[in-house]
Amino acid sequence: MEFLDIVDEDGAPTGETVSREVAHAEGIRHRTAHVWIIRRGKTGYEILLQKRSREKDSFPGMYDTSSAGHISAGCEPKSSALRELREELGICAAPEQLRYAGRFRIQYEKMFHGKMFKDNEVTDVYVYEEPVALSSLKLQESEVEEVRWFDLDSVWREIQMRRDRICVPREGLEVLKKYVEE
């Protein structure tokens, strides 16, 4: 069972912990870390999206952030981001290869697999710009079905119109867009 720090509005741990299952059943605020893997394409930036496993408890079978995960109780955002990259994609990045891009909030309630899922997260966002060959990735099958490169601006336009294929949080993509525009 995974335990998470309960955090305040700013993402600071309160000293209390909660299991991941209870956090999502009751909508208790906790932390996550997201990593965007990006590269320059012919017409702008491209982002690597992972297709979530059909067994995931939220947004199964949809394309999502390159790598993301919960920050276990007592852990820090950057170390969690590095762990998720290694576990989900097989990328062993060094801490200095992740650039901090910002923070955003996720809050929603939605039914998945016939069960209510309440998400309430404070999310730290990192960017990884090292070369990545899809053929060299080792996907964690329980989490990730496949990965693909997408044009950043095309993803941005698509999530404004529909949400049936890509579930990346709009606020998270805004953090990334601001990062690449600086």
Mean pLDDT: 96
- Cα-based radius of gyration, to the nearest Å: 16 Å
Number of strands: 9
Q: Could you give the distance between the termini?
A: 40 Å
The secondary-structure element order is EEHEEEEHEEEHH
Description of the molecule:
By secondary structure, the chain is α+β, with helices and mostly antiparallel strands. The chain contains four helices and nine strands, in the order E-E-H-E-E-E-E-H-E-E-E-H-H. The protein has helices at residues 20-26, 77-89, 152-161, 170-181, and strands at 3-7, 13-19, 30-40, 45-52, 63-64, 67-70, 98-112, 115-128, 144-151. Strands 3, 4, 5, 6, 7, 8 and 9 form a seven-stranded mixed β-sheet that branches. The longest helix has 13 residues, at 77-89. It is globular. The chain starts with a strand and ends with a helix.
Topology:
Elements: E1 3-7, E2 13-19, H1 20-26, E3 30-40, E4 45-52, E5 63-64, E6 67-70, H2 77-89, E7 98-112, E8 115-128, E9 144-151, H3 152-161, H4 170-181
How is this structure best summarized?
With 182 residues, the protein is α+β, with helices and mostly antiparallel strands. It contains 4 helices and 9 strands. The protein is globular.
